[in-house]
Amino acid sequence: MFGMKKLGVNAYASVGLETGVVDASPLKLIVMLYDGAISACIHAQQAMAQHDIAKKGEYLTQAVTIVDSGLRACLDKRAGGNIAQNLDQLYQYMTRTLMEASVRQDAKKVQEIQHLLMELKSAWETLEKSAMARPVQADMSLGQMVAQKTNELQQMGQVNRLATAGA
Questions:
Q1: Could you tell me the CA-to-CA distances from 147 to 42, 81, 118, 151, 159 in Å, in that order?
Q2: pTM reported for the whole predicted model
Q3: Is 144 in contact with 84 (CB distance < 8 Å)?
Q4: What per-residue confidence (pLDDT) applies to 4?
Q5: Are the C-beta atoms of 132 and 16 separated by less than 8 Å?
Q6: How many angstroms separate the CA atoms of 107 and 23, rounded?
Q7: Helical (H) or strand (E) element with 109
Q8: What does the alpha-carbon distance between residue 124 and residue 65 come to, in Å, rounded to a whole number?
């Protein structure tokens, strides 16, 4: 009986997530990627505390995939200039650190990456709010939009400080 209820809740959550992705702006998609990576880091730390190696591996793999194949893959290093290069290095550091944390069972390293992700997410949320006043061109690709917004972040000085601190 409860299994069916849980199945329904999961199906509802899945539909809600899919609808959110379809309706999301490119900036919102990036914020959603950060949310997913942060959530995976939190769950990985919980699994480590419970000595659940399988779950820890599952969640850290999820976090690494989001950072590497999601956030890092969106970077346009030519258009984004130094800030995109710095973010690329920071994302590489995050990936490497999460993989080392998995091998060494190091929850503190996972927490470090979680905090970096939270700071970056906050910066992107600020851009998302400002984008309502200055919309992105409709024909702009996600990579071009990321480059434009990372340049705006660089002007604000938020991401460069994080990228140089983490690399």
A1: 29, 8, 20, 6, 13
A2: 0.71
A3: no
A4: 41
A5: no
A6: 35
A7: helix 107-131
A8: 19
